[in-house]
Design a protein that fits this description.
Number of helices: 4
Structural class: alpha+beta
Order of helices and strands: EEEHHEEEEEEEHH
Largest sheet: 8 strands, antiparallel
């Protein structure tokens, strides 16, 4: 009694259900165009563009269907195990013009098969991001071509795991698990902070060119 049972040559490892949760808030102040067609709110409607900006490495994302991708995260170390996580990411714009993301369907490459972790882990991640204008920018005077804008976001991650006994007895299990989850969220936040404003400006420049070309075509017609 109390010893692992053998079935068809496979060791059955005792386990216990545990739940880990973490969350993070994002706020970024920047400038946006006063033209509603070029606002940050309009930019966030480009779901695919924002996802590609967040995950710029094409080798780590694959489009499944409109608004849904299979994404590979960077390798992680969990005690003595090194693994790569693959998840399904869905993104859309809700009725409040917030860009929403949802992540699930977690699969791990690199974990020992006897642990059967892919059948014992349930990951959920939900996040959203939206913009709000906060008035004219003094830097834009006198033409006031830009105004102040604040980007706000939030993300929450939950991991439910049927943890094998070999890990339950390991000191620091909860802290290590939360640290890994926070590292994943922090990487997403860093990608957004580093690329969001820059990509928005590139989008504005391209959109202005497209609008000008369309206006000229309409005048000729």
């Amino acid at each position: 009694r109390g010893q692992p049972r053998l079935s068809r040559g496979v060791t059955m490892i005792q386990s216990q259900m545990k739940k880990f949760e973490t969350s993070r808030e994002l706020q970024l102040d920047t400038l946006e165009s006063t033209d509603p067609r070029l606002s940050f709110k309009s930019y966030l409607q480009n779901v695919e563009r924002v996802v590609y900006m967040t995950f710029p490495d094409e080798s780590r994302r694959n489009l499944i269907e409109d608004g849904k991708w299979r994404v590979s995260l960077l390798p992680q170390q969990f005690f003595w195990i090194t693994f790569t996580a693959h998840t399904t990411l869905s993104a859309w714009v809700n009725q409040e013009d917030a860009l929403c993301i949802q992540v699930g369907d977690l699969q791990l490459d690199g974990a020992p098969p006897e642990l059967d972790l892919n059948n014992k882990l349930l990951l959920t991640l939900n996040g959203k991001m939206f913009s709000s204008s906060s008035g004219p920018s003094s830097a834009s005077a006198p033409n006031r071509a830009t105004s102040k804008c604040t980007i706000r976001g939030s993300v929450g991650m939950t991991l439910e795991a049927d943890v094998p006994q070999v890990f339950l007895a390991t000191p620091g299990l909860d802290q290590v698990s939360i640290t890994i989850m926070e590292a994943v969220i922090k990487r997403m936040e860093q990608s957004l902070k580093q690329g969001l404003v820059q990509d928005y400006r590139a989008w504005v420049a391209k959109t202005q060119q497209d609008l000008a070309t369309k206006e000229k075509a309409n005048m000729v017609a």
